[in-house]
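dumping this here before i forget
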Amino acid sequence: MSEAPKQPHSPYFLDWAWNNKLLVLPIVMALVFSLCGGCFGLAYISSLQSLRKNPLHMKSVEAARGNEQVVKELGLPIEGGFISEGNIEVDDDMQQGYADCTIPISGPIGTGKLFVKAKLEAGKWTINSLQASLENSGQIVTIIDPDAVPEEKTEAEEE
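structure:
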């Protein structure tokens, strides 16, 4: 009896995939899940990046850069991280709201956290209280004191 001649292996991927269906299915599933996960991850990172461009975030980090003790402990440049804890509530229609949040900061020498309490009125953020907790020394530095009352100008000073 003569044996049927074996067919030569096809160099085409589709022929290989058709012959090895059970191997291809997990590979395709892994690719689909990776693409979906990548899209969700990209959307998440984009939303966090927009929080870093928030005027409240920028004002808080800028105030920390202007404080001598914070600069001495962390070094320059000081960068702000993502707002990690707290609440920010904003009413876009009325352009008012408040924030009580924590912003991680870091410099070339050390790291820390900014504790921010602020109010949004007429579309403009006003920081009521800003403290920096410096991890290297364990110090808490008050950058903007909530108890400090701004001095009002008297009529003699205005003239």
